[in-house]
Structures are given as C-alpha cells and as structure tokens.
Write a structure and sequence with these properties.
0% of the residues lie in helices and 47% in strands. The protein has 176 residues and is an all-beta fold. A hairpin with a 6-residue loop joins strand 3 and strand 4.
Length: 176
C-alpha cells in the first residue's frame, strides 16, 4: 500500500466497514492507487480505485506578513513553501537600499531566480525555498519599506512586507 494512504481496519471478519484516509497531498499532481479487498478465504475480491486530489500551485511565506529589519541592515534570509515549477523573486515599491541575490535555494538546490526548477519536485510534494537579500544600513531618519514578491509559474504572487527601522542618532560624547 502507498505510504500516503491509511486504511482502518486493515482486516476483519464478516460484514464490515473500513475507513480510507491519507496524508495531505501538497503536490500539483493527483495521487492514485488501487485497494484490493479480499473476502474471507480469498475466493472473492474487489479492486477499489482511490484518487487523492492535487493541491493547486502555491507559494507561501507561512504566517509571516511582514519582517522588521534593524537600521544596521545585514543579510536577510526568507523561507517559505511552494509546489511551483518556477519561482521568480522581485523587490518592488522599495525605498530600501537592498540587493536581491541572483540565486535561491529550492529544496536544497541553488536555482537562478526566474528559471525552471530541475526535476520539478512540486509535482509530488511541496518543498522549502530560501531567498537571500543584502540590506544596507538605513542612515535616514525615516522607516524604509519594500515588498518582496514571490511569483509562481502560474503568475500568482505572494508578497511579504519589509520594513527597515529608522536610524537613531545616539548621544555623542564630544570632547574639547
């Protein structure tokens, strides 16, 4: 029996019922299997086809809607889940001094931004991704903002708000 499917009970006597369940399908392709139900003594049997629907193509930053970044900046790594065959990241509506890296991690493989993911792991399961940005120091007296957009192959876009804290001038100790 396939790992994703669960039948309970798996045996019994006389007339009875059984329940069929399974782990969620996070891939873009439906899952198919056939259950073989045998009558006592093995004289009669019935094949029951089972199909589990696929999950629609998606990109998710999880429950994150925004990230607050210190005024000092630094490297920012943003993770999420997807089942798309291609991801394109972009930084939009931004007044931040930030650089989006050319490559991102897709299930352990480094992929060029905007290129198809080799072997398309999302057909069978969702996988983790991680994109990196270099955020330079904010030396202004105002908060800076931007939007990190993850665009799936079907052109759906998931957005994460980035906010960088304002520079705070600290007391200076000036010696004469």
């Amino acid at each position: 029996m396939e790992e994703w499917i669960d039948v309970n009970p798996t045996s019994g006597t006389g007339n009875g019922k059984f329940n069929v369940g399974g782990t969620p399908n996070t891939g873009r392709d439906p899952r198919h299997t056939t259950l073989l139900v045998n009558a006592e003594g093995g004289e009669k049997h019935q094949k029951i086809p089972v199909t589990q629907e696929a999950k629609k193509e998606f990109v998710s930053f999880g429950c994150m809607q925004e990230i607050i970044i210190s005024s000092e900046g630094g490297e920012l790594y943003v993770q999420g889940m997807t089942n798309t065959p291609k991801l394109t990241f972009n930084l939009s509506e931004s007044n931040m001094d930030a650089i989006l890296h050319d490559k991102y991690d897709a299930g352990g493989e480094l992929i060029n931004n905007g290129e198809k993911i080799p072997l398309d792991p999302g057909t069978h399961d969702a996988f983790r991704f991680c994109v990196a940005l270099t955020i330079n120091e904010n030396i202004t007296q105002k908060e800076l903002c931007g939007k990190l957009c993850a665009v799936a192959d079907n052109n759906s876009c998931t957005t994460l708000i980035l906010k960088q804290k304002q520079f705070i001038l600290k007391d200076l100790d000036i010696k004469k």
